[in-house]
Amino acid sequence: MRARWAIAVAIAVLLLGRLPAGRCQGIGGQVNPPPTAPLLLQLQSTVDRLTRNIFPAVKDNFGFCIKDPQHDWDHTFNYTKDLDFLGDCADRTPDFSARLCTAAEVKFYFSSFIESGGKTSYLKPNKNCNSSSWVSGCEPGWASSVSPDVNVDLQESEYIPLRTLDSQPCCAGFFCPYGITCMIPCPLGAYCPVAKLNGTTGLCDPYKYQPPPGKPNHTCGGADIWADVDHSGDLFCPAGYYCPSTIQKNNCSSGHYCRMGSTYETSCYKSSTCHLNSEKQSMTIFGALVMVALILLLLIIYNFSDQILAYRERRQAKSREAAVRIAREAVQARERWKAAKNIAISDSSESPQIDIGDTYPRKNATKGKHMHTRTRIFKDAYIEIEKEKVLQQEKKNLTLSGVISMATKNEIRTRPIIEITFKDLTLVLKRNKKQLLKSVTGKLVPGHVTAIMGPSGAGKTTFLTALAGKTSGCQMSGLVLINGKAEPIRSYKKIIGFVPQDDIVHGNLTVEENLWFSANCRLSADMPKANRVLIVERTIESLGLQAVRNSLVGTVEKRGISGGQRKRSSSLLLLRALRREALEGVNISMVVHQPSYTLFSMFDDLILLAKGGLIAYQGPVRKVEEYFSGLGIIVPERVNPPDYFIDILEGIVKPGTSTAAKSNQLPLIWMLHNGYNVPPDMRNEVDSVNASFRSGISSDRVGSDEDSGDADVWGDIKGAFEEKRDHLEHNFSKSKDLANRRTPGKLKQYKYYLGRVFKQRLREATTQAVDYLILGLAGVCLGILAKANDSNFAVAGYTYTTLLGQIGALRSFSLEKLQYMRERASGMSSLAYFLSKDTVDHFNTAVKPVVYLSMFYFFSNPRSLFADNYIVLLALVYCVTGIGYTFAICFQPGSAQLWSALLPVVLTLISTQPKNSKILTSLCYPKWALEAFLIVNAERYSGVWLITRCGLLAKFHYDINHWALCIAVLFVYGFVFRCIAFICMVILNKK
């Protein structure tokens, strides 16, 4: 409050100081004649000239609340349009210029309020009004004059003239404060008539003061105070009226509205209803129209985009169907030609020699040159697929390698060879020292399909995860060699595929879209489109996904294809497809649970893990029964061998003979059988193994026990720190790219990501509509409950506005963490992923302010412009979206929602407390949003509102010139938090 009155002092002194110096000197006891109209115009001209001389001082000292001094002076004290009140005052009191307050008196008037904190309108004693001298001019609404021989300089800021003569009521259009004996012109937007005594209340209406008791000749005077609206609301032109001058009050006519402090009436929009004396126009209908227009626009955008996607899908389906038809006809024609050729060859042996060519006639051969490119690409792909199918049917006894060789004319495309050798691989959790894998030795051979089997908890998934280099929080010992070299497996991440147990495909994409995205981002950038089409179509055909290729995969909430189709389609089809990849040199390993004998026999190699992470067998599938039969473990008839071996390792089934090896001895027997190193804690069991099972054991492999190392002193604490360190090393360590595949760059991947995210957003239209509906309802509630209040420039409503918009941004990243980690591990660009999400979210950033303001603005009806509010809210939504990204990436969904709801409340409370540290407040983004909202409203308040405006800005330490700065800071905050979110996304690789 003190700040508000301090500002009022300075503003009033400077603005009133622009009035010309008064000279009032009587001649022969006569007063000066009343001024004429030309004299009043000359007076106004003098005021204008004086104004230009003090503009710099006003701007330098009070620039925080005065943006344009000329504009504010014109709207506060420029009486050029109506000088009648000056003439009336001159007619009533010819020495009126001698009754005007000097700068010193104005300063004294406002400084008294500073000391009282604005709690009282009584002024401290002064030269003219004190305990020994109290003339009628000291009473509220009255003024006195100076001696005729005194020259009054209105710009005198130190000396208060002796003014105690000829006390009279204050002129209309002026206000005379209690405790001083001079008049101050009322600002424009005020209504300052001469008061009339209310016989009922005893007050001088329309003001709140009373005539002094015991003075029957003392009548009501003029206005008595001008301060902020809370202390001098009676001075302001009432709402529903407009005051073209400070002595004239007119009813606001129908079709117009007049806010408090208006100097003119404002026309209402044609569709709104404005009755006589309307304070505001009803703008609810406009909010509804804006909302309807926005809904129609969004429907057009979504439907148009959906139609484009559907049209593209129809064209592709049409091209694909045409290609399938052409391919089948071509293959059938080829087969007929081959059959005819074979018949002709057989007949030629019994008839004269006939020259038979090696090619068959092609129907409409020239037509292919003009065939549509898309159809031709599909045709070539399906011809290749159909040829493989026919050959596989004809040559059932031929290996699949031979089938592919014949179908491609002996041209089998080879892949980079990756052979993985592991020796004494041991994996121990750092926190509790639990052993997950123990002395695992063997190799994964390129061109083979390896099955990894074992009882539950044997470490099958852990084993594959360790080989893929995806373990963290574990201490791994032993040796893993890639092609005989100690190279990190991540050097080959561009050509390695890792399929975890979780469903991590995108549920709001179709089967084909998921495959195409992976093909576009992971296949070589130099690969022709025809080859990519062949790979995708062969995958769909091989897995039997033709019927569901255009179906959404689905999520837990929204049903799509079945779980089996989501992961693997048919196991038999999957294994056949993988064997085809193995023929090209791909090293394939998979965890298998209870396969049928048919599937089991299709694998090349088998790794059988026992409990404790130990290998019980590793080698060809065809030799596994032979190996175990040598240990006395013979598979009974009509029992599936893999199931029987797992039951043996589980301990559920006992071997049929007493001489058979025990289940707990199988890992040790395997080590001894192959001459592997035996762990120290298992060496005391070597002697218990039957000698017949220990053929070829080398004594130097057994040795003596060794010290296993000191106990872990730090325990779980040390393990936790080491786990965090492993996370950082895993995310920041860079390895040389040895994959020899140039995948698409970041810009190209950004394009693919952008298309994917755009499709996902289109399919989430219902969710987006719910978000917009909630935001619109919030705007209605806040617009109704937090009505725009002139006393605080609608600050309350905007305070609640800063709490919105953050939770909706969490959905962008919180729902796809697993998918992102998988894509990142395969070498895809994190930057392209992040930027694509943010780019598509810009649509929401632009639309959400319109949705909210279409309700809030037209229900609360503030004085600021819709466009100004939109710009501020746009910057605010951009800012909080970046913060939402950070929470979504750093926390789990529940915690992220809690933070998104709690943080804005805390920061808003800090921002709205003037007593808080200025530095702390400046760090809170709601401070900048509130300041921007307050500025766009404060600029619409002038004239009689000037003191209120400056006081409110001073209270919150805001600056009217900082609107652009506030917008810039909000955008900078949004950008900085996006950078933080991206860094956290790269660093935090949570499971």
Describe the structure.
With about 1000 residues, the chain is of the alpha+beta class. Among the domains are: about 1-230, no CATH class; about 420-495 and about 590-705 and about 710-730, 3-Layer(aba) Sandwich (Rossmann fold); about 745-985, no CATH class. About 45% of the residues lie in helices and about 10% in strands. The protein has 32 helices and 17 strands. It has a 4-stranded mixed beta sheet with strand order 15-13-16-17, sandwiched between helices. Helix 1 runs antiparallel to helix 5, helix 7 crosses helix 8 (about 375-395) and helix 28 (about 895-910) crosses helix 30. The chain is elongated. Mean pLDDT is about 80; it is low at about 1-10, about 10-35, about 50-55, about 355-370, about 395-400 and about 695-715.
What distinguishing features does this structure have?
single chain, 991 residues, alpha+beta, Rossmann fold, four-stranded mixed sheet, three-stranded antiparallel sheet, 47% helix, disordered N terminus
Ordered list of secondary-structure elements with their pairings:
Elements: H1 2-16, H2 37-62, H3 69-77, H4 84-92, H5 103-116, E1 142-146, E2 163-169, E3 174-175, E4 184-185, E5 196-197, E6 204-205, H6 229-232, E7 241-245, E8 248-251, E9 256-257, E10 266-267, H7 284-348, H8 373-394, H9 400-407, E11 420-429, E12 435-444, E13 449-453, H10 460-467, E14 474-482, H11 511-522, H12 529-542, H13 563-567, H14 571-583, E15 588-591, H15 597-602, E16 605-610, E17 614-620, H16 624-630, H17 641-650, H18 666-674, H19 699-702, H20 716-732, H21 746-762, H22 765-785, H23 795-801, H24 811-814, H25 817-825, H26 830-860, H27 866-890, H28 893-911, H29 918-922, H30 925-938, H31 946-955, H32 963-987
Parallel strand pairs: 13-15, 13-16
Antiparallel strand pairs: 1-2, 3-4, 5-6, 7-8, 9-10, 11-12, 11-14, 16-17
Helix pairs in contact: 1-2, 1-5, 1-31, 7-8, 7-26, 8-9, 8-12, 11-12, 11-21, 21-26, 22-26, 26-27, 27-28, 27-30, 27-32, 28-30, 30-32
